[in-house]
Amino acid sequence: MKTLSLICITAMILGIAVTGYAMEKRTATVVSLEGTAELRSAGQSSWASAGVGTVLNQGDTIKTSPKSWALLNVDDGKIATVEVKEGSQMTVTELMADPKADTSKTLLDLAMGEVLIKAQKVHGEKSKFEVKTPTSIVGVRGTTFNVKVEAVEE
Questions:
Q1: CATH topology of domain 24-149
Q2: What is the C-alpha to C-alpha distance for residues 63 and 41, in angstroms, rounded to an integer?
Q3: Collapsing DSSP states into helix, strand and coil, what is residue 99?
Q4: pTM of the predicted model as reported, rounded to 2 decimal places
Q5: Residues contacting residue 110 through CB under 8 Å, at least 6 positions apart
Q6: Cα separations (Å) of 40 from 13, 78, 135, 138?
Q7: Beta bridge partners of 33
Q8: How distant is the alpha carbon of residue 44 from its chain centre?
Q9: pLDDT per position in the chain (154 positions), as tens?
Q10: DSSP one-letter code for 142
């Protein structure tokens, strides 16, 4: 009986590992920039200057200065374009794909400011494209939409 339990547990662990292994990381790239923007890589505390060609990976944060904006292509524009408007800060929280299942997961976390998103129609029922704000999460299947987060005065 103990052997059977051990086999079942091992099979479950391997199944989870194989499922996680199938996921591939995706990127977003700055394709246009007006003014100045900064990038904070995942796990880092300092900001670096961002420019056209800067690649954002899962966990990276971009912020734009006043009178500045950055245009990002998610997966070379195949998934979406994201215009990060002036005075905004957005983290690319999740950017993964499973090519075998033809699914993708995109989660953008807008802490402050405004983004204009042109999302392509997602493929597969399990694919997700979501934008999180401090008060909500918006999920889309393919559309153009604007999300704005304003500072709350206390």
A1: Jelly Rolls (2.60.120)
A2: 12
A3: coil
A4: 0.79
A5: 88, 89, 90, 131, 132, 133, 147, 149
A6: 34, 24, 23, 24
A7: 70
A8: 17
A9: 566 555 656 555 555 544 445 678 889 999 999 999 999 999 999 999 999 999 999 999 999 999 999 999 998 888 889 999 999 999 999 999 888 887 889 999 999 999 999 988 766 677 888 899 988 887 776 677 778 888 755 5
A10: S
